[in-house]
C-alpha cells in the first residue's frame, strides 16, 4: 500500500495535487476541535463584520464567526460523505463479490435487486422521505438512507470483474488446493477489486456530498447541523448577497469546490493506476 501511494505521488500529478488539496481540506476541518465557539450557538460575535484580522472570514448575520463555523461545516460534510461512501462500498462489495463468484440463482436474485435500486430516482425519493420523516430526518438518518441507495452501480462493476477473475488459473488452483469460497474471495480476488473500490469510494463521496449540499440548500435536511449546505441555506435565508455579506457565500463555496476537485483528481488518478498501460506509460515518461 505504501509503495502504491509513493508511486502515485511520484508518477501521477493528479494524485499528488488531489492529495494535497484533500489534506488541506481535512486540516481545515480538524481545526474545529480547537474552536472557542459552539457550532450551534448564535450571536456570539458582532454581526456582519467583513473579513479582518480578528475574524479572518468575517462574521454572519447570526452572530457567528464564519471561519470557525466553516471548520465545523467541513468536518460534518466530510464525515457525511465518508459514512455514505463506506457503508455503500461495503454493500456493493458483498453483493458484487457474491454475485460474480457464485453465479446461478444467487447472481440472478442479487442482480434483480441491484437493478431495482439502479432505476430508483434518488433525489425525488429523498425529498419525499424528508416530508414523511421530517422530525426524524437527522444527519445520521440521511446518511443511512443514502448509503442504502448508492451501492448498486458499483456492485454491478465489481460483479463483472469477479466473473473474469473466477475463470483465471489461480482461481482453479485455489479451488483444487481445497480453499473455501470465503478464503478464495477474500485472499485471491479482493486485492484485484480494492483499487476499483477506492476509486468508486472517491466518486461516491463526491456524489453524496453534492446531493447533501443540494438538499440542505433547499432546506430538505436538518439545517441546524452545521454543514456546507446548511451554511449556504442560512446565507440564503438572511439574503446575504442582497445585504452585502458576500463572504458568507464565498468561503463555503470555495472550500466545497476544493473538496470536489480534490476527490475528483484522486478518483481519476486511481482509474489510471488501475489501467496497467496508463501506469506504465506514466512511469516511462517519468
Structural class: mainly alpha
Distance N to C terminus: 20 Å
Whole-number mean pLDDT: 84
CATH class: Mainly Alpha
> Approximately what portion of the residues adopt beta-strand conformation?
under 5%
Q: Total strand count, please?
A: 0
Summarize the amount of helix as a percent range.
over 70%
Instruction: Kindly report the CATH topology.
Output: MetI-like fold
Task: Note down, in words, how this protein is organized.
This protein is mainly α and 286 residues long. It has a single domain, classed as MetI-like fold. Helices cover 74% and strands 0% of the residues. It has 13 helices and no strands. It has helices spanning 2-11, 13-30, 66-102, 104-118, 122-132, 139-149, 152-165, 169-176, 181-217, 228-237, 240-243, 247-274, 276-285. Helix 2 (13-30) packs across helix 12 and helix 8 (169-176) packs across helix 9. The longest helix has 37 residues, at 66-102. The relative contact order is 0.16. The mean pLDDT is 84.
